[in-house]
Model the fold of this input.
Amino acid sequence: MTNETDMVERAQSGDPEAFEQLYDRFYTPVYTYIYYRVGDQALAEDLTSDVFERMVMKIDNWKPMGKPFIAWLYTIAGNLVRNHLKRQQLIKWISLNERDPDTSENLMTQISKRIQHEQLAKALRQLTEDQQQVIILRFLQGESIAAVAAAIGKTETGIKALQRRAINSLGRILEKDSVHVTT
Done:
């Protein structure tokens, strides 16, 4: 696999294959990060597309400076989410994808999973922005403490403390709402 910095440098020089490799490598983590911030699949897809559009337009602005490229993408994603949420008052409806009832998973299981994801996303949005980022990056993305610290510009000790507070707050919110989330 090509070194991340090499891929970015190739993209900065206009190599379309490098842009494609960056997109393929980082689409899922960026989408997941955004989804758990906004709680809506279509909106998360739109905002994720906007992140990569901005990546293409502003790739020349990225400098390694000891941080991974994904940290820059998370910064762009966070700014887009904040701007969107400032402009919108969102009403949430549980949208069920039309599916063939003969699929291996029955409709009630699909609905239950969808509701649990929606409830978790709603609970996450009640946390502070830093707490949301730590929970999403650590537990939904599987990033290390060091990677999260680099991504959001805090010390590893600060991330550990923030993570502990975020978990405690999330636990209280989920308990209050009697939400039982399983993955």
About this structure: The two ends are 30 Å apart (CA to CA). The domain at 107-183 is CATH 1.10.10.10 (Arc Repressor Mutant, subunit A). Residues 169 and 175 are 10 Å apart (CA to CA).
